[in-house]
Amino acid sequence: MALICGASGLTAMNLSIPADRSALVLVDYQLRLLPMIHGGAQALTQGIRLGRIAHELGVPVLGTEQNPRGLGPNDETLRALCRHTMSKMHFDACEDGLLELLRSVRDPAPGDVVVAGCEAHVCLLQTALGLLRAGFRVWVVADACGSRRISNHELAMQRLRQAGAQIVSFEMVAFEWLHSCEHPRFKTVLPQLKGD
After folding, report:
1. For position 102, which CATH number holds?
2. Of 40, 118, 174, 180, which one has the greatest count of Cβ atoms within 10 A?
3. Under a CB-based contact definition with an 8 Å cutoff, are residues 62 and 54 in contact?
4. Which domain holds residue 127?
5. Does any domain span residue 105?
6. Per the domain annotation, does 1 fall within a domain?
7. For 96, what's the count of Cα atoms within 13 Å in the CB-facing half-sphere?
8. Does any domain span residue 47?
9. Which residues are within 8 A (CB) of 73 and not within 5 positions of it... i.e. 6 or more apart?
């Protein structure tokens, strides 16, 4: 089968996001940072909804916090959805242990990592690039990401796409993880899909 997107390893046979091979990484939804983020409340809401759906479907959820002494912890609701929240000082969480954490959450380790968070053009971008370098397929949830300036968010999505990440929406991820309305957890997840 011909390669559709060389950098990400996507072929016609594996264009979807498989829940049973995925992990979710929620990057730096921190209390002192969010008020400065353009659309920060929406990004946080989408991050929480993603975390809840992942939890329901058995997708491991990890969080990161950039210099939490300076920027505070992640939002409490979001933090409670994470199996583990790692503190970091590098903008790329892979340099502070994210790769090792990802390899420990599933057996076999996840091949696909869904990523969302702040700031899109700094920590989110550098973490996603680190994951790509490590050989993961990376899915960036654009509507669950934020930057202080909307132009930086747009540039980050553009650059990530060029680097081989797939840019997706919250609903794309949720419905691809479910795969069918006959999924046994569909009715449980439905309120998150409706925004209830």
Report:
1. 3.40.50.850
2. 118
3. no
4. 16-81+89-194
5. yes
6. no
7. 18
8. yes
9. 30, 31, 65, 79, 85
Model pTM score: 0.91
- Tell the burial category of 82 from Cβ atoms under 10 Å away from its Cβ (0-12, 13-18, 19+): buried
Both tokens assigned to 49: 């909804």
- Tokens 């309305």: give the residue: 181
What is the pLDDT tens value at each position of the chain, 196 positions in all? 333 344 445 554 468 999 999 999 999 999 999 999 999 999 999 999 999 999 999 999 999 999 999 999 999 999 999 999 999 999 999 999 999 999 999 888 899 999 999 999 999 999 999 999 999 999 999 999 999 999 999 999 999 999 999 999 999 999 999 998 878 888 888 878 877 5
Angstrom CA distances, 27 to 15, 51, 59, 140, stand at: 24, 12, 16, 11
Q: Which residue has the tokens 């491991």?
A: 60
- DSSP per-residue letters across the chain: --EEETTTTEETT--S--GGGEEEEEE--BTTTGGGSTTHHHHHHHHHHHHHHHHHHT--EEEEEESHHHH-PBPHHHHHT-SEEEEESSSSGGGGTHHHHHHHSSSSPPSEEEEEEB-IIIIIHHHHHHHHHTT-EEEEEGGG-B-SSHHHHHHHHHHHHHHTPEEE-HHHHHHHHH-STTSTTHHHHHHHHHT-
